[in-house]
Amino acid sequence: MSKKALKRIADALERISPAPMATPDFGVASAFVWETEPDALRPVLRVNGVAMARLVGIDRSRDTLLANTTQFAKGLPANNALLWGARGMGKSSLVKAVHAEVGGLKLVEIQREDIPSIGRLMNHLRGRAERFLLFCDDLSFDHDDSHYKSLKAILDGGIEGRPENVIFYATSNRRHLMPRDMIDNERQNGINPSEAVEEKVSLSDRFGLWLGFHPCTQDEYLEMIAGYCDELGLKPQNLRAEAIEWQQTRGGRSGRVAWQFVADLAGRMGVKP
Domain range for residue 46? Predict the structure, then answer.
């Protein structure tokens, strides 16, 4: 057999069963992104986050998550956390801000579509000296989606369970991570409706902390904008009227809408955020 044929066979075998992931150098960065095909932990040299002081109107959630993360960083017992609720109210920003505030932890982001590979990721992190904050943004599951079973087994079930040096934080617009109509359908059509519903919603029970995020009031919205403007040195006229008009055109108020208004304002005033 020719060398070219042998090389083609070897390449095909490698695609079917790729080489094991090399041991990552966790000293090069404080944050990493989990990638698959092939498995890799890609370092993130600059995390796209906001300062803790910018997060207005979520004081209770901020303090609770900060305390939980501090306990974990010290090697003390801590809970997995589910941050759920209104869009644009700072759920993912809070996770990244807490990571920056506590320090000493490695932030590892896993995409929702890569949840089935979470067991492999845990095996790479288990037993290491570093402590890891595993983060999944916008986690949810749709009809006929069985990926949640992989996450359930890792978080609390199974023989090994969650490694002692790993904690899991997730954000979602859904409290139970699944559509309400999906849960209602299980109640209506299941042979044993209560058991079917328990199977679906038990995933959220794996999170010891449930932190709810709700739409902000107009005063909180204006407070967010005032804080951003102070930080950037912006002193526009008619700020209140413009801010209210902006949120009316967007059909709602949130921290994200507040920042979008300030970004637009800064651009018009020639200031770089």
Answer: 31-213
